[in-house]
């Protein structure tokens, strides 16, 4: 069983959007997938409540019960667990990161978000946890995006070659308990989520590092 955490200090960076979209991508790829929602806001749980499909399974869990829940899911034959973490909570971030095989750190290409994201990167580095930053809400053009990529690379942290752009399809789908690849399968949002899923899978399985071309060719 693989464990993926989605962690960043900043609120609203896209943690739950990415957790739910990757969970659906994994489930559709044949992996028995569960989301554990560690956030008291329980947004992943609300998404699941309005979702018509039974999968992926979504459960809210207190950090103190996380080891027990992970054992139970492993026992039940689950292939992939995605931990949707709350903003700000350093302790919960660490509780989630410790058992994880890989951590995705979403951030907007924005100076304040990148400042918060740096704290998350430092936390992951302090426990040598494999992680990658993924830029979300990317504008179609603009110098900020290139500047953000440079800042992230200068931190020495891995930067996902797949970037998510600001697209209405994400929010529209969420309001129906779905994901963009389900409601608008031909959309650019769907394409970038599938590409992010493929990139994440490679990282989770600790395969050799990949470049843009390989991710694109597998998408
Ligand atoms: N790439 C995107 N384009 C457009 N809207 C997006 C994108 N990513 C996320 N959103 C929207 O932004 C809002 C916040 O996203 P989300 O809830 O995933 O963030 P979060 O990091 O989980 O927030 P929190 O810290 O409160 O848990 C949601 O309404 C979501 O639909
Ligand atoms: Mg959230």
Give the gist of this structure:
The chain has 10 helices and 7 strands.
Write out key terms for the chains shown.
single chain, 219 residues, alpha/beta, Rossmann fold, seven-stranded parallel beta sheet, 47% helix, globular, binds adenosine-5'-triphosphate, binds magnesium ion
Describe this structure in words.
This protein has 219 residues and is of the alpha/beta class. The protein has a single domain, classed as Rossmann fold (3-Layer(aba) Sandwich), CATH 3.40.50.300. 47% of the residues lie in helices and 16% in strands. The chain has ten helices and seven strands. Helix 5 links the parallel strand 5 and strand 6. The model has no long low-confidence stretch (mean pLDDT 94).
Number of helical elements = 10
Strand order, sheet with most strands: 3-2-4-1-5-6-7
CATH topology: Rossmann fold
Oligomer: single chain
The count of strands amounts to 7
Beta-strand residue fraction: 15-25%
Helix content: 40-55%
Number of domains: 1
CATH 2nd-level architecture:
3-Layer(aba) Sandwich
Class by alpha and beta content = alpha/beta
CATH superfamily: P-loop containing nucleotide triphosphate hydrolases
Order of helices and strands: EHEHEHEHEHEHEHHHH
Strand and helix layout:
Blueprint: E1 2-6, H1 15-28, E2 33-37, H2 43-50, E3 57-60, H3 66-75, E4 80-84, H4 90-97, E5 102-108, H5 111-126, E6 131-136, H6 143-154, E7 158-159, H7 168-174, H8 180-183, H9 188-204, H10 212-218
Parallel strand pairs: 1-4, 1-5, 2-3, 2-4, 5-6, 6-7
The structure holds adenosine-5'-triphosphate (ATP) and magnesium ion (MG).
């Amino acid at each position: 069983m693989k464990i993926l955490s989605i962690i960043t200090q900043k609120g609203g960076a896209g943690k739950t959007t990415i957790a739910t979209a990757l969970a659906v991508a994994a489930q559709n790829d044949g992996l028995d997938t569960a989301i554990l929602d560690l956030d008291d806001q329980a947004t992943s749980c609300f998404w699941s409540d309005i979702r018509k499909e039974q999968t992926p399974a979504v459960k809210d869990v207190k950090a103190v019960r996380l080891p027990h829940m992970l054992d139970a899911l492993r026992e039940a034959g689950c292939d992939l667990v995605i931990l949707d973490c709350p903003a700000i909570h350093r302790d919960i971030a660490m509780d989630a990161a410790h058992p994880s095989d890989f951590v995705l750190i979403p951030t907007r290409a924005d100076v304040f978000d990148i400042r918060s994201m740096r704290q998350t990167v430092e936390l992951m580095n302090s426990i040598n946890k494999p992680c990658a930053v993924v830029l979300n809400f990317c504008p179609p053009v603009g110098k900020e995006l290139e500047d953000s990529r440079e800042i992230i690379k200068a931190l020495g942290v891995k930067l996902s070659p797949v970037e998510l752009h600001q697209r209405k399809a994400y929010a529209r789908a969420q309001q129906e308990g779905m994901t963009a690849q389900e409601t608008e399968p031909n959309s650019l949002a769907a394409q970038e989520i599938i590409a992010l899923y493929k990139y994440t899978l490679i990282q989770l399985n600790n395969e050799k590092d990949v470049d843009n071309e390989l991710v694109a060719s597998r998408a």
